[in-house]
Write a structure and sequence with these properties.
The chain has one domain (2-263). It has 10 helices and 2 strands, in the order ααααββαααααα. It has helices at residues 2-19, 27-34, 39-63, 69-93, 108-128, 146-163, 168-178, 183-206, 213-234, 239-263, and strands spanning 97-101, 104-107. The chain is mainly alpha-helical. A two-stranded antiparallel ribbon has the order 1-2. The protein starts with a helix and ends in a 5-residue tail after the last helix. Helix 3 packs across helix 9 (213-234).
């Protein structure tokens, strides 16, 4: 299963490199089902893996000047605060048992997996459905809907902290609609925001657990290597054409996790 986990880690990076986002949502299932980590540890480790992989992926966007620093700061600050607070205080404060009905127990572990499965289904919809945003020119005057940006940042940060996913499928539309960024710049800016909030979120909880740095760095190396492979493949394969197929895969996985964990909780 560990060998399968490392192979899957490479595919996480390949998905990120090919479709530009969404691949990070596979990280938690890989850590939980293949490596056998508990949900709190899996979501925490996922923050580091997603953060470091996004940081490496953003380098090419910086080189092409496709990162809007001002937007990254405005959107990133509330998101970083939310993800840090969620990992440092909210997750540890969640009760081990929410409620029980007969023999069924809705535990902290089940709550996080259920929330994650719902997020996977939502992410799959954004990949399958072709949504066209009004493209802004690079020279267009930037306008900022500050209240909505702050709210969006807090929501995305909280979700990232709870489920360990980057939330790029939520951030990119927000940057296009609320900050009027061109799509390519929105993708580059999103990677920077994801890298910053994920890594800081990981720091928010790292002092509370014994981090297995050897394992964490090894998985990250596989994911980063996959990312470079995905970028290379993207020059030959149109990632936009693969995105709907990947969306259906995420949808099936999300439904599988939801049904499996609610119907057969605790069984991997």
């Amino acid at each position: 299963m560990e060998i399968a986990g490392y192979i899957a880690s490479v595919f996480i990076g390949i998905a990120l490199g090919l479709i530009g986002g969404g691949g990070s949502i596979l990280t938690v299932p890989v850590l939980y089902y293949l490596f056998g980590l508990d949900t709190v540890t899996a979501t925490g480790y996922s923050l580091f893996i997603v953060g470091i992989t996004s940081a490496f992926s953003s380098v090419s966007y910086f080189r092409r000047q496709l990162v809007d620093i001002k937007t990254a700061v405005i959107f990133g600050i509330p998101s970083i605060i939310a993800v840090f607070a969620t990992r440092a205080w909210l997750v540890p404060a969640l009760p081990d048992l929410f409620f029980s009905i007969g023999e069924f127990q809705f535990t902290k572990n089940l709550f996080m997996l259920t929330l994650f499965a719902i997020l996977m289904i939502a992410a799959s919809y954004s990949m399958i459905k072709k949504v066209k945003f009004k493209e802004e020119s690079d020279t267009a005057v930037r306008t900022f809907n500050y209240p909505m940006i702050i709210i969006e940042g807090l929501v995305v940060g909280s979700l990232t902290g709870l489920v360990g996913a980057g939330g790029g499928f939520l951030i990119i539309p927000a940057l296009v609609i609320l900050s009027k960024l061109p799509m390519k710049m929105a993708v580059g800016t999103s990677l920077v925001i994801i890298a910053a909030k994920s890594l800081i979120g990981f720091i928010g909880e790292s002092h509370q657990s014994n981090t297995d740095w050897k394992f964490l760095l090894l998985v990250s190396v596989f994911a980063i290597a996959g990312g470079f492979m995905g970028i290379a493949l993207s020059k030959r394969i149109d990632g936009k054409k693969l995105k709907p197929a990947f969306g259906y895969f995420i949808l099936i996985m999300g439904i599988y996790i939801l049904v499996k964990e609610l119907a057969f909780p605790g069984v991997k």
